[in-house]
Amino acid sequence: MRDNLITEKTLEGKIDLDAIKNLKFDEKGLIPAIAQDIDTKEVLMLAYMNEESIRKTLSEKRACYYSRSRQQLWTKGLTSGNIQEVKGLYYDCDADSILVLVKQSGVACHTGNYSCFFNPIMEKEKIDTKDVLEKLYALLEDRKSNPVEGSYTNYLFDKGLDKILKKVGEESAEVIIAAKNKSKEEMTYEISDLVYHTLVLMVNSGVKIEDIKKELISREK
User: Fold this and answer.
1) What is the pLDDT of residues 123-160, one digit of tens each?
2) E-strand spans in 50-110?
3) What sign does the CA torsion over 192, 102, 78, 47 have?
4) CA R_g for the chain
5) Rounded to two decimals, what is the model's pTM?
6) Measured between alpha carbons, how far is 87 from 170 in angstroms, rounded to an integer?
7) Cβ atoms within 10 Å, residue 53
8) Does the structure show a pLDDT above 70 at 11?
């Protein structure tokens, strides 16, 4: 039985090109494609693909879509740097839509938001804190690549490593003072500042959150 797999990045690099024949393209030769972050599971955007863009995506392992307005192929992030490294490509039970599992660099939306789906109609009452570090890291990466005037983050990047290190040191001292004061509220605030500036340092130095996770996992042995 076919498992609706078009491509999956495994050790064997399994790609089933014959699966493309099963897809139900519309009268214009297009099929909707939903991009989802493989790590956070957040839905990032909706775009369209045709057979050519699918084959290009499989070949380059980068998400390539078809622009209906420009009537041409476009590789996500080619100009902005916010590329989508494709980790998996699946079609649904009706074979009329595609799920693209991606490793998102920077942000997915041209507005600067991480996901294109940021306009609420019904919103969860509880704040979703899942994968907040990954989302913040992505936003910081985007600020570095696409500076915003008046942004404190860009101020740090512009000043360079010494300034960032100074802030990390200052925030570390603030955490120590808060801990000595035995104030949970103060510690929460100062630790948040330290985490933010540490992430800025990581982005500036090219250290990924995944690098930290792998290092911590290696210490479990």
Assistant:
1) 766 556 668 899 899 999 999 999 988 899 999 999 99
2) 64-67, 72-75, 84-91, 98-104
3) negative
4) 21
5) 0.57
6) 39
7) 23
8) no
